[in-house]
Specification:
It comes from Pseudopedobacter beijingensis. Pfam families: Redoxin (PF08534). The protein has six helices and seven strands. By secondary structure, it is of the alpha/beta class. The chain has a single domain, classed as Glutaredoxin (3-Layer(aba) Sandwich).
């Protein structure tokens, strides 16, 4: 018994570290908070490509009211699509930066589609409302080509006004980055 107490006493720091790491790993809101802090370092700034890729297959999306839109219909507008899920900590971590981008581009010719890949509109809507996010919620209403989404969450696609892919970002990013916001605004005027 004495050896056990001595072992605990000598390893208290290590034990506390394990408990804290476990709390971070298994608590999505806490993990999202720490991930957001990492995003703020600037290491995760997305880059829009000058080499546009033709969209090979259309995508149908359904909004929370049941209205269908297709990507082809949105030609002439810049389109920001984010594939996400409520259980995905990196998705949750980047959501405030997407909200900031959305707020910064209001009134411009930019369409946002937050595509919940879980197809659970009620859960996704509650999540957005709880976080005070005003982002437009959609669900896939057709198959999604690998060109747009290969299964990695989050995945973000940006289409220029010609309907061409100028960004495909797999993994989290800081969309509130000033250079990125300026680039989105410049796509509107091209």
């Amino acid at each position: 018994m004495m050896n056990f107490k001595k072992l605990i006493k000598e390893n208290t720091g290590f034990i506390i570290s394990l408990v804290v790491m476990g709390f971070i790993l298994f608590n999505p809101p806490v993990r999202a908070f720490f991930t957001r802090q990492i995003l703020k370092t600037g290491l995760f700034s997305p880059k829009i490509s000058d080499n546009a890729e033709e969209l090979k297959q259309d995508l149908l999306l359904k909004d929370i009211n049941g209205k269908l839109i297709s990507l082809k219909e949105l030609e002439g507008k810049v389109v920001f699509i984010n594939f996400w899920a409520t259980w995905c900590p990196p998705c949750i971590a980047e959501m405030p930066s997407i909200q900031k981008l959305y707020d910064e581009t209001q009134g411009l010719n930019v369409v946002f589609a937050m595509v919940d890949v879980d197809n659970d509109p009620d859960k996704a809507l509650k999540f957005l409302e709880k976080g005070n996010f005003t982002l437009p919620l959609y669900h896939p209403s057709s198959s999604i080509s690998d060109q747009l989404f290969e299964g990695s969450l989050p995945t973000t696609i940006v289409l220029n006004k010609k309907g061409q892919i100028v960004l495909k970002q797999q993994g989290m990013s800081d969309y509130a980055d000033k250079k990125f916001i300026d680039k989105i605004k410049s796509l509107v005027t091209e």
